[in-house]
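#struct-queue
[09:14] JT: dropping the first one here, sequence first, then the structure tokens:
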Amino acid sequence: MSTPSMVLYYDEVSPPVRGVLLAIAALGVKDRIKFEYINLFDGGHLAADFLKINPLHTIPVLRHGDLTLIDSHAILMYLCDTFAPAGDTFGIPDTLTRAKVFNMLCFNNGHLFQRDAEVMRKIFRGEITDPTNHLPPIEETIDALEHFLQKSRYTALDHLSVADLAIVATLSTLNLLVPIEANRWPRVHEWFKEMQALPYYNEQNSVGLEKLRGILATRIKI
């Protein structure tokens, strides 16, 4: 077997990484990618060799020949364009479909994940030990997700897309801080349960999530 030409730099504690891992599993292309582990909590992302690849010291990073992608959402779109054949669930056949998927990827990147990251940074920097007063902005974005899911079965389309994979990786992390209750967010709760039933969900998301939970539990009560 030839050496995979794509390289993914990852640590599964990261929600954006887990979104990409879910997509790789969904597309069935794990054997076509080389995985390079970067230990976030040991400062691996700050190592000189990695900074040459991504001076912003974030993961995931995907390298494919001369191409280097440093944003998980760009990686997700590239994986779809590269590996999802015509007619595939994850294929993006037209401009309208691309716009809908990209819109929800931007929602995750600009709103849902940013609210998560803001609180997590404060926790891991030791700035807060009780996140209660920092949760309303997170709840607001989950309210927005509830609104979106009232309009379609999945977050972007009426079938599964990479937007769902990115968002569930973030939402499952937020669920550690803000439990997704059916009485407040019925559609989000229903969608979340459906996503958790995906055959690759546990291996590609739950493992990293539980690893993060263990680290988080040393900082706050969860």
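[09:21] JT: and here's the second one, same format:
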Amino acid sequence: MLNYKVEQERTAKLRYVKKTDGLDIEQESKNSSNEGAPEFKNIKKLEDNIHKPSGSSVQLMCPATGNPIPTITWTRNNERTIGRVSYKKWSIQMDDATTEDSGVYKCTICNKLGCIEHSTKVTIRDRLRSPPIISDKFPQNQTVLAHNSTYLECRVVSDLEPSIKWFRYVNQNVPIKQLEQVALKLVNKSPPNNSSLLENVITLTAEPDRPNILNFTNVTHREEL
């Protein structure tokens, strides 16, 4: 009669114990059930578009997991030759980027069980005076449990130091365009055309040294939009 006992180790082992004349004869077999295809560690943090002025540093990251440990390959515009970049485990970095570094960069991550990939469009523009550009993925909607903490982030590309202000729109029945116009008037310190809308626009305060981050602590339903 065979008795079975499972031991949990880095790789699972199945141990067969056979009773023979009062002695235990053991055999072990490896179990490869913990193998897995590559997966991104946090796909929400992967960027689809990056805008930078010339002379900036650009870092692209594709952190992933998998067993066996996957390999990563980078291409730009589907070509393996990328140019002046430094490689790290799950990222590449370009320093003093120029307009010639613009393109679609793709990371391809593979092991014997499969491959995953992600593409990021990088746009490097010459330094010209122009309005700030807000990243199309920020700020992001947040879902958080009551009485927990969270934050909103506004990522901005600008040749000059931008001034960032945060506002909360209260009345959902008022068209968002009208509330945005009121907020712009407040930023420019000019009276809005319709002062009755002022009560629907609340100015929020961020930390002075990090104006692009708006922190929330001990959130309640009052912060919901």
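[09:30] RK: nice, looked through the second one.
[09:31] RK: Residues 36-125 form a domain with the Immunoglobulin-like fold (CATH 2.60.40.10).
[09:31] JT: good to know. The chain has one helix and 18 strands.
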